[in-house]
């Protein structure tokens, strides 16, 4: 049985991995979905459909054949790519065909989401390669060449952006530290003519501050490892030099490919001198990081760099094209403008502030450099507005984040995820509504997990977390972390998504996101939101003689930047949150104007990732769509719960639920079964209801469409409960039956065993008795022989006596006939007397004598004496009988020649006991 069970189980697993769509697992629960994904992952099937979403599992191993140009062409040429195995190319092709179909909205977007390391960047890259192959122009050689150039440029933007925007983190060796939206622009013939990149929230703090075991942006390592001797000299990067902003340089990653970055930059139109300029500035930043200040004893005096840092100041200023003393002074001394005349006050900064200003300078340069690079890439790949008509957008954003210590960055990321979640749910509902319409159902009952309350808490008007943080920045007043916490808690107390961890000593607040609660620390939140850049730092950089920095920090900027003092300005302060919110809204506007497609990347072999997957899996919170076939297969056993009395369609579910069935179809065959299942629902609902509940208080929404059954979570739970109940009943029934069967079997076996035992015993007994018979026969024959012999001897003896007797009185005693008969009787009977006299038991010697006497009927008182003697001395038995003169007889016995003839056979150790023993005993007794 176990074998069969095991086989069945394994067969089940085999089927599970064959399921290409997670909505086909039966039933769609978190557990079954995870099991299906796991089975597919183990079978090297990394893509699975989940309704309108594609789930991509990170294989963590190179699979070149999965992304080959041949496979791309296969998906592109397939009449129905959705019939092929799920793949990122299916989404790519579907999107491409949607653009071709010109059905509104023509523009498409692909939202690639997932946590860090799940494969978002990889997936976006794959899609870009796919479009570079399928959307290439096959026209003339010239246009083909141009198209190739564009496609190549678009592809080349990846290594450049990854070198400057990606870093090795604890969770991913090539983690994108920014979000991006790439717009692939297509002309009327659906050929890729250009692209545009929009980036979000670069993690610029990484330039000056890296968590332990993490690294700075890849580009710093690339220049340190890949520079030539000459370049090393130019950039002051001697081999083995130590930089405090370059942790873990010994780790070599495949991303540390300087040549690839240079090559790609070249293709994007960044020539070698410009590249060298960029790398020189980056080397300058590394030297800037080595400037360590010593604390000043006199507050009025600026902190001086430590001895070994002095040369770093010199090198940094040289590389950044800045006067050494001005650089140092700007970092050491704060200038304050006050009063009506805007008088300038100079205040030496304490050591910590010097460090902050130094870091700020580096972040400012790097962020501008990154933005500039993006703009260069855009100008290189962007097509003229009139040369493209449609686009496909690829959005690769950070996944939901929850760390022990969450701050403004996480708030922004999770806010973006909430927005995208809302967008997804809206799209999902739309898709479901369409499906309901196809199934001929009214859209009435669905109660989705709505995250609007959470969004209201974060960005709502007039008061929200964002507005409160922004207000703190605008008021420009000193505010403590605890004050901010209290303000948020009191102002937003009514929000169901705001929580507070009373056990936490650090000031914080909790936001209950759709993916789970996250605690944000309020310390430093306002400062981070302000992202203040001291204006003297910008002015310093405007003095730079370096061509690149001169371009990045022009002296007469066209637009007023946030770095300008804004204390008296009436314009709203441009905080990090407000800028992010604006760009997010812009992005969502773009997304709303497109047909969205979703790819959810999952990191399968890490514990934390499963949770993210679980929490974000919207399909588990919406109604389940189960095909009639699957529904019947799983729940037909519920019919056992049906009350036997119910015969008609009394179920409230049937009346409004089931549509009219078309005869002869497969669906029609399933109808009676579904009807039967529906009849059990009132029973189930009643069983689940607590005594106080009325029937109406237990609605269990369930709708049957033409091909699918729509059930909510609560209904699914109810059905599963009923199923478990029936299975339990069945199990009990099977157990009872099995026990009865086993009992009967055992009784039968016992009877059979007894029969066999009895047969064997009787056979053994028969054998034994046969042996005894044989022995008895031998004894009998021996005895008979002996008796005859004795008779003969006795006769012979008596003949002698008689002759003697008659010869003594021949004339006076003539033998009468009576005498003759008497003698005959004596001769005939005496051996019996002898036997009795020889028996071992029960007869005393006197009795024996009497018996013998009686047998022989010897004439008492006869004067003559009798003597019987055997001639052979070796014969057993009576050797002589003598009649004594007094009339008594003396027997002289010898032992029987049959040695144990008079001994009862002992029971043998092999002999049987019990009934047969009794038989044997009886037999023995009889025999004796
Ligand atoms: N389809 C795939 N085939 C092979 N390897 C993959 C695939 N997808 C991801 N990987 C591997 O996983 C690593 C992480 O993937 P990726 O950088 O795309 O993650 P991410 O989701 O963009 O992470 P982050 O948010 O940190 O940027 C890649 O460097 C690659 O080695």
UniProtKB/TrEMBL annotation:
Function: Actin-based motor molecule with ATPase activity that localizes to the mitochondrion outer membrane. Motor protein that moves towards the plus-end of actin filaments. Required for mitochondrial inheritance during mitosis. May be involved in mitochondrial transport or positioning.
Positions of the Myosin motor domain: 17-618
Family to which this protein belongs: Belongs to the TRAFAC class myosin-kinesin ATPase superfamily. Myosin family.
Sites where the protein binds ATP: 114-121
Biological process annotations from GO: establishment of mitochondrion localization
Location within or outside the cell: Cytoplasm, Cytoskeleton; Mitochondrion outer membrane
Pfam family, one: Myosin_head
Protein name: Unconventional myosin-XIX
Annotated InterPro entries: Kinesin_motor_dom_sf (IPR036961), Myosin_head_motor_dom-like (IPR001609), MYSc_Myo19 (IPR036035), P-loop_NTPase (IPR027417)
Location of the region described as Actin-binding in the Swiss-Prot/TrEMBL record: 584-606
The gene coding this protein: MYO19
Origin superkingdom: Eukaryota
Entry keyword set: Actin-binding, ATP-binding, Cytoplasm, Cytoskeleton, Membrane, Mitochondrion, Mitochondrion outer membrane, Motor protein, Myosin, Nucleotide-binding, Repeat
GO cellular component: mitochondrial outer membrane; myosin complex
MF annotations from Gene Ontology: actin binding; ATP binding; ATP hydrolysis activity; cytoskeletal motor activity
SUPFAM superfamilies: P-loop containing nucleoside triphosphate hydrolases
Membrane topology recorded in Swiss-Prot or TrEMBL: Peripheral membrane protein
Subunit structure and binding partners: Myosin is a hexamer of 2 heavy chains and 4 light chains: interacts with myosin light chains MYL9 and MYL12B.
């Amino acid at each position: 049985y176990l074998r069969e069970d095991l086989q069945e189980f394994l067969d089940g697993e085999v089927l599970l991995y064959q399921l290409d769509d997670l909505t086909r697992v039966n039933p769609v629960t978190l557990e079954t979905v995870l099991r299906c994904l796991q089975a597919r992952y183990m079978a090297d099937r990394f893509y699975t459909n989940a309704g309108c979403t594609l789930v991509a599992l990170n294989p963590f191993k190179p699979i070149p054949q999965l992304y080959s140009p041949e496979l791309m062409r296969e998906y592109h040429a397939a009449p129905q790519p959705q019939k092929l195995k799920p793949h990122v190319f299916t989404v790519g092709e579907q999107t491409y065909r949607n653009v071709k179909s010109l059905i509104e909205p023509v523009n498409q977007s692909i939202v690639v989401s997932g946590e860090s390391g799940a494969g978002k960047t990889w997936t976006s890259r794959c899609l870009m390669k796919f479009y570079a192959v399928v959307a290439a122009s096959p026209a003339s050689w010239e246009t083909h060449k141009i198209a190739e150039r564009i496609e190549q440029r678009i592809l080349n933007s990846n290594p450049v952006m990854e070198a400057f925007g990606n870093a090795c983190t604890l969770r991913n060796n090539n983690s994108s530290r920014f979000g991006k939206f790439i717009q692939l622009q297509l002309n009327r013939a659906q050929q890729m003519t250009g692209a545009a990149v929009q980036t979000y929230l670069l993690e610029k703090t990484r330039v000056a501050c890296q968590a332990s075991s993490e690294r700075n942006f890849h580009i710093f390592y690339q220049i340190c490892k890949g520079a030539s001797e000459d370049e090393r000299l130019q950039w002051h990067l001697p081999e083995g030099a130590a930089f405090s902003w370059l942790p873990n340089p010994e780790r070599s990653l495949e991303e540390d490919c300087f040549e690839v970055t240079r090559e790609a930059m070249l293709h994007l139109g960044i020539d070698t001198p410009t590249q060298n300029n960029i790398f020189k500035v980056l080397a300058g930043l590394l030297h800037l990081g080595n400037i360590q200040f010593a604390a000043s004893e006199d507050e009025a005096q600026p902190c001086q760099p430590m001895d070994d840092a002095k040369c770093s100041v010199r090198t940094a200023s040289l590389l950044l094209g800045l006067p050494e003393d001005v650089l140092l002074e700007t970092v050491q001394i704060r200038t304050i403008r006050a009063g009506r005349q805007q008088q300038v006050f100079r205040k030496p900064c304490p050591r910590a502030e010097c460090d902050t200003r130094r870091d700020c300078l580096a972040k400012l340069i790097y962020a501008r450099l990154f933005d500039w690079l993006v703009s260069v890439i855009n100008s290189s790949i962007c097509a003229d507005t009139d040369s493209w008509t449609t686009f496909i957008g690829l959005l690769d954003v950070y996944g939901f984040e929850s760390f022990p210590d969450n701050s403004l960055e996480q708030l922004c990321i999770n806010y973006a995820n909430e927005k995208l979640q809302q967008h997804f749910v809206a799209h999902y509902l739309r898709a479901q509504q369409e499906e309901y319409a196809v199934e001929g159902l009214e859209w009435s009952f669905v109660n989705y997990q709505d995250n609007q309350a959470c969004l209201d808490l974060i960005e709502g008007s007039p008061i929200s977390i964002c507005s409160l943080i922004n207000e703190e920045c605008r008021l420009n007043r000193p505010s403590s972390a605890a004050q901010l916490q209290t303000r948020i808690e009191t102002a937003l107390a009514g929000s169901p998504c705001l929580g507070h961890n009373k056990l936490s000593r650090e000031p914080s607040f909790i936001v209950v996101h759709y993916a789970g609660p996250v605690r944000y620390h309020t310390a430093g939140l306002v400062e981070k939101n302000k992202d203040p850049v001291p204006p003297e730092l910008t002015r310093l950089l405007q003095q730079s003689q370096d061509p690149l920095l001169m371009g990045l920090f022009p002296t007469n900027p066209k637009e007023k930047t946030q770095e300008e003092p804004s204390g008296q300005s009436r314009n709203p302060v441009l905080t990090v949150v407000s800028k992010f919110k604006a760009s997010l809204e812009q992005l969502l506007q773009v997304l709303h104007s497109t047909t969205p497609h979703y790819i959810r990347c999952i990191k399968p072999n890490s514990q934390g990732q499963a949770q993210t997957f679980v929490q974000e899996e919207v399909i588990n919170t919406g109604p389940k769509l189960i095909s009639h076939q699957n529904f019947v297969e799983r729940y037909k056993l519920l019919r056992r719960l049906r009350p036997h009395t119910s015969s008609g369609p009394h179920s409230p579910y049937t009346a409004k639920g089931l549509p009219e069935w078309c005869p002869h179809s497969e669906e029609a065959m399933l109808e009676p079964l579904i009807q039967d299942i529906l009849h059990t629902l009132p029973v189930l609902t009643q069983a689940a209801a607590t005594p106080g509940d009325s029937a109406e208080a237990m609605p269990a929404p369930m709708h049957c469409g033409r091909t699918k059954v729509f059930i909510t979570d609560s209904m699914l739970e109810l059905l599963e409960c009923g199923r478990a109940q029936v299975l339990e009943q069945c199990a009990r029934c099977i157990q009872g039956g099995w026990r009865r069967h086993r009992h009967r079997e055992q009784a039968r076996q016992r009877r059979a065993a007894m029969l066999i035992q009895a047969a064997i015993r009787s056979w053994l007994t028969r054998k034994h008795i046969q042996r005894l018979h044989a022995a008895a026969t031998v004894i009998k024959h021996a005895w008979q022989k002996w008796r005859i012999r004795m008779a003969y001897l006795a006769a012979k003896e008596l003949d002698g006596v008689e002759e003697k007797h008659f010869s003594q009185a021949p004339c006076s005693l003539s033998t009468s006939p009576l005498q003759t008969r008497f003698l005959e009787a004596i001769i005939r009977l005496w051996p019996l007397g002898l036997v009795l006299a020889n028996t071992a038991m029960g007869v005393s010697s006197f009795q024996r004598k009497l018996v013998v006497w009686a047998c022989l009927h010897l004439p008492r008182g006869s004067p003559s004496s009798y003597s019987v003697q055997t001639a052979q001395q070796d014969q057993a038995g009576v050797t002589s009988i003598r009649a004594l003169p007094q009339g008594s007889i003396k027997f002289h016995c010898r032992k029987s020649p049959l040695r144990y003839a008079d001994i009862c056979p002992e029971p043998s150790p092999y002999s049987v006991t019990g009934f047969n023993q009794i038989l044997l005993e009886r037999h023995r007794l009889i025999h004796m």
